Amino acid sequence: MGHRCCSKQKVRKGLWSPDEDEKLLKHITTQGHGSWSSVPKLAGLQRCGKSCRLRWINYLRPDLRRGSFTEEEEQIIIDCHRILGNRWAQIAKHLPGRTDNEVKNYWNSCIKKKLISQGLDPKTHNLMPSHQRASRKFACNMPQTSIDHSFPVFAVSNGQMTAINNNVNREIQPPVLTLPSPPLLQPIMAASTTPTSENQIQKPNTWTANYGENPNVSITTTTFPCVSSIESGPISSCSTSSVNPSGFGLPDDSYPIWGTNKMVEPCRVPSLEGLQLQELQDKGVYKDVDYCSFDSSIFDLAFVDSTLMSGAMSRDLSSVSIDDFGWTF
DNA sequence: AATACTCACAACCGCGGGGGT
DNA sequence: TACCCCCGCGGTTGTGAGTAT
Question: pTM for the whole thing?
């Protein structure tokens, strides 16, 4: 049974011959594709329109970039996947000359395995259960200089979850969660250029603030500007089930990150709104935290995972497409 | 050298959305 | 509103090259 568009005619399947490629290429470069369903007939091919379209998009298009993926491209794929999930077409838009099929194949054949070998769940980008405890303990108990910086550390403070730049502050160890990088963390960190236009990457913003009620304890936090190219107003909610369940870096309704003013604001975790430290303690999340020698054993990670994280990260996004965010790198 | 296995990539399939009637 | 057609997307399968036994 063929596609509906070509069910009436006999169509060839399988690999394309050079002759077929030539016919298709010649037809599209001279006539354009118009309606794909009419392409086979016009081009003299015994293929279905869908097959022609796919062949053109994935192989014959002149602007395709051939060859293996660079490390930079790989990082972009990982970062985009963390935000977008398996939306290959959206991810591919960030990689000029690459097709969604190519990105998908590269993910399945290479990146996925790489992440798994690093103990990361390729679906969520979080540490997999068997690795979680050990890694959290590792992050909490190891000297800061030993921490793998590919796993940025986050602190919850005043309803905001911010990444703590390990390079900046090595003395204070507030309660930390070891989680995968927030969206676009690496590219932004790597770029570190001074923004001159609204589409350019902005530098991480670093500042120092008192932590909790103790004036003697301060922490340095780094936030990551989320640059939007959209002109619209506030976004009512953000996240989807396929989005990174951590949801870091995603805005909430009242936060003016996404306007054209390109304000640089801390990225807030929505569901932590109003959950001040005391409340977290009341809920048993923090039980008797010594901010300078935090021990993961007194931090109810399961609670955070199941309650805070899932709530923060899987808010209903039915009314907003993540595409609308128009993230740029 | 022959066979089995693995892997990367190309292509197919089914589904859902949008537009036209 | 219902139906049809077309397009695009994501998941899955097929294929061929490379490698191991």
Answer: 0.51
Subset of residues 103-162 in chain A with CB less than 7 angstroms from any atom in strand C: 104-105, 108
Statement to judge: residues A196 and A78 lie in one domain: no
Domains held by chain A: number: 3
* Cα angle A163, A126, A184; round to 5: 50
CATH of the domain at A15: 1.10.10.60
Q: Which is nearest to A243 in space by CA: A149, A95, A152, A126?
A: A126
Nucleotide closest to A59 measured between CA and C1': B10
Q: Let me know the angle formed at the C-alpha of A83 by A271 and A225, rounded to the nearest 5 degrees.
A: 75
- Give the range of the structural domain holding residue A9, as residue numbers without chain letter: 4-60
The closest nt to A90, taking CA to C1', is: C9
With CA of A50 and C1' of each nucleotide, the nearest comes out as: C7
Residues A46 and A190 in one domain: no
**Residue A140 and residue A180 in one domain:** yes
Q: What is the pLDDT of residues A14-38, one digit of tens each?
A: 888 888 888 888 888 888 888 888 8
Range among A2-6, A129-133, A154-158, A227-231 rated most confident: A129-133
Strand B nucleotides with an atom less than 7 Å from a protein beta carbon: 7-14
The more confident residue out of A320 and A257 is: A320
